[in-house]
Design a protein that fits this description.
The protein is an alpha/beta fold. The protein has a single domain, classed as 3-Layer(aba) Sandwich (Rossmann fold), CATH 3.40.50. Helix content is about 25%, strand content about 30%. The chain contains eight helices and 15 strands. The strands form three sheets. Strands 1, 2, 6, 7, 8, 9, 10, 13, 14 and 15 form a ten-stranded mixed β-sheet that branches.
Amino acid sequence: MVKKVLKQLIPPIIYSLLRASTKDDSIAVSNEMWTGNYSSWSEAKSKCTGYDNSNILEKCKEALLKVKNGEAVYERDSVLFGEIQYSWGLLAGIQRAALENDGQLCVLDFGGSLGSSYYQNKEFLSTLKSLKWCIIEQDNFVECGKEYFESEQLMFYNKIEGCTEKQKPNIVLLSGVLQYLENPTEWINKIRALQCPYIILDRISFVETDADLITVQNVPEEIYSASYPAWFFNEAELLKKFKGYYSLASFDSFCDPPKLLNGHQRAKWKGHILTSR
């Protein structure tokens, strides 16, 4: 539910599919997908298989090719759905940035897989004067993206610098990605240095504790077999790292209900429309 609307090298889009069957999103649901409270990223990583399994890329490619070719409606986390599920807060931020730029939009989608967010939102952006959607991803995803998905609107780069040498993004999108970076502060500083007027956070994991939490995420076998380290951030402290920006609006994740980590730590997924204006 959008709150106060208008007031990523690195893994692809990650895998949160279990939706709580409750009308009160403040109620956290216990889960076994995220486990542990590790003292360091390296300790958590030692318990994981990682992001490099070829089956991850293959499943993402197969699913998104069906969307691209009109054989399926919507893909998220390599899983196909019968209808598009929108992140309305994300879409509101994108449209505001386009309106402020005379209908011209260039998105730097950091960790954007093979274009999941692009395909999710492109119908709402089809009347813009200009749309460029630039994905920064791991080398194998970039190679696949260029071969099967690249177009005049959708482009793939393996480095931020490779994108900004050719494009002038007015939005940086970080959707479900910061929590899977070993050094998120380092990447936040690089993104801030781009001085884009908007940074949109979507599906970022937060925990209601004073300190950040490092866990291990175990992907359900029915999606594919994989596990990797994941941060849960203190929300206020994370936002402080985006110096020069303020939160225009915040919104709950459209697909990730609140959960209890390790049986007692309350976690939630949220987004923020950050602007320097």
